[in-house]
Amino acid sequence: MYKLPKHEAEARLKKIQQIIVDTDAEACVITSSVNQYYLLGYIFDGYLYVMREGDPYLFVKRPTNIKGEGVKPVYKPELIPALLREMGVKPPKRVVLETDQLSYSAAVRLQAALEMPEVNNASGELRKARMVKSEYELEQMRESARAHAKVYETIPSLYRKGMTDLELQIEIERQMRLHGSVGIFRSFGENMDIFMGSMLAGDNAQAPSPYDYALGGAGVSPLLPIGANGSVLEPGTTLMVDMAGNYRPYMDDMTRTYVIEHAPDLAYKAHQVSIDIHKAIVEKFKVGTECSDLYIRAEEMARENGLAPYFMGTTQQAKFIGHGVGLEINEPPVLSPRSKEQLLPGMAFALEPKFVLPGIGAVGIENTYIVRENGLENITLFEEELIHL
Amino acid sequence: MYKLPKHEAEARLKKIQQIIVDTDAEACVITSSVNQYYLLGYIFDGYLYVMREGDPYLFVKRPTNIKGEGVKPVYKPELIPALLREMGVKPPKRVVLETDQLSYSAAVRLQAALEMPEVNNASGELRKARMVKSEYELEQMRESARAHAKVYETIPSLYRKGMTDLELQIEIERQMRLHGSVGIFRSFGENMDIFMGSMLAGDNAQAPSPYDYALGGAGVSPLLPIGANGSVLEPGTTLMVDMAGNYRPYMDDMTRTYVIEHAPDLAYKAHQVSIDIHKAIVEKFKVGTECSDLYIRAEEMARENGLAPYFMGTTQQAKFIGHGVGLEINEPPVLSPRSKEQLLPGMAFALEPKFVLPGIGAVGIENTYIVRENGLENITLFEEELIHL
Questions:
Q1: pTM as predicted
Q2: From 3.40.50.1820, 3.40.50.620, 3.30.360.10, 3.40.350.10, which CATH number describes the A6-129 domain?
Q3: Which of A10, A52, B45, B160 is 20 to 30 A from A257, comparing alpha carbons?
Q4: How many inter-chain contacts (A to B, CB under 8 Å) are there?
Q5: B29 to chain A: which residues are within 8 Å by CB?
Q6: What are the tens digits of pLDDT across the range B150-174?
């Protein structure tokens, strides 16, 4: 039933079963690809039915080739109660669902099919269950980060004078795919559309977007207003490269900044402050630190250096400087001014203090760190200074 | 307020307002990117509030730079009733939402915010409103199809002996981007993940997938089990190329089949049956034909030619031979055995009778047709025979 190492599958199942106990439920029905993959190591169209004890049941619409005990073909959710009874399981009184991901229509249909008096949400708990990672998961993130670094290494050789941001992005996308990027970029929530990542050249870094990313960019399509806008890479401006780190199911996140020929002093100064924020946070880090502490420290350093107006954007400023990373690019915790979430061993997060400088562009770096007993492990090992093209 | 030609914006608004009347509602709140774009020509994070008459209101979370009468910043939906009252609008008694797209959590929050006794769904009606296209919309689809054809034209020059399906796909992806593909592939529903389209080489065409596409393929990641699986393109097999036609907001859909060096006679025979099905359907077409008629005709011709076991898959057979196309790749109507939907002028649909031949691969073609008073207009003009690599 599982396509994961046995101890991984067991540990993950236990976490979900604990959520079922904690939410006073008898079962949890998992329908999102990410959480199906988390539990099983693969995905299907259907209902992954987890109980307080024992292996889950799989009620499968597609594909037709999943076999095993507890795997039952269904073409609609209304068949589930009878199948449960056949297997000697009393239809449950209380089930938790992923109602942050399921559409209203699908959730209500599932509620009726399972004869539930109410709909209960486990989305948040399931996301929290994925927050602390195992060595198996973290090693995938390190592998992803190594491929990511190899791709960024090719950027100077891909650049040609007079190129647009989009032309360079297309060559980087090709390198990403050749280095194993799966292409699609998994995220949580309704305002996270993007294609393979973000390239922000010059003043396009100031363009606000509808999405919940740290920075924006106008994009090239009115249906996807984010990132590169087709502007020529001009000498004296910067190019911020924040392309996806999706080389494994578990991802990393890394931003580096390139300078087109030369840049004003302010670019170097602000970029150094971003690096210094990373250094200060790594140096002072203790297990149990609250996320808000990291935000406050970064914001303080931006202010002390006179960079507050440029911190995390200009016309639209993001109110976070980092976020958890894993199977999705925006996992908990969020490094925001009010998050009391503690950073604990096994968590992985991206830290991205960035500045947007009018007339120049965005500067700063983003690294992905793993929280370890003795401090932070940087897995995104790549030149941090401004890189000249 | 609109970034569309005036007559387009007016006609689209009227269609939505008719839905509000038909569903006995006072307003419709649009939250999906696709329907926001349909009405406005751009998207935002927030609530597009359409009433039976007059211009809509925009309650905008992000971006911060949308200006105009009726545009109000909000950071949460609970602020909407007070803002409506300020503008002299009585808070509505009945509002329709897009509950096939909105998450359960978001829909319930919106329901409470607007003090609605129940949640009512307009997703299906809104999709139907987009079914009949204007000349403005159809022209974008023709433009997309022309770019699509130019990309397919490059394929023989991209091919190298011994390549894998994925290696060739990566080069095609690059050509797509250079020809204006926006990258992401807009679709409706919860089982439609894919990255830039599908390449099926040899027996990988038989691998069933969890997704609602015509054919499957094992994919290269357990988190995205669809399409190319990294197998070498072997002489004597076929390669079916069904990459996205997303060169404009309005898309086309086109499949062509390539032969690696040579292929058994059965490949030529079955491919010709696919072409003949297209011809038969185009010849017999009359405005008002029901979708099921097209399916039945195609299935009949597959049977008459002894190809029923290979029709639309082997281990898992799709129960449709085509679908509407527009802002999303899977718009209504569906060409399925029981669809009584009539094909009317201004509709656009993809027709994809395909065969999967064990030991050889998938064959057949997919064209996109526009329904016109006097018949079908094929917009995907490109070599239809098997193309040799």
A1: 0.97
A2: 3.40.350.10
A3: B45
A4: 173
A5: none
A6: 999 999 999 999 999 999 999 999 9
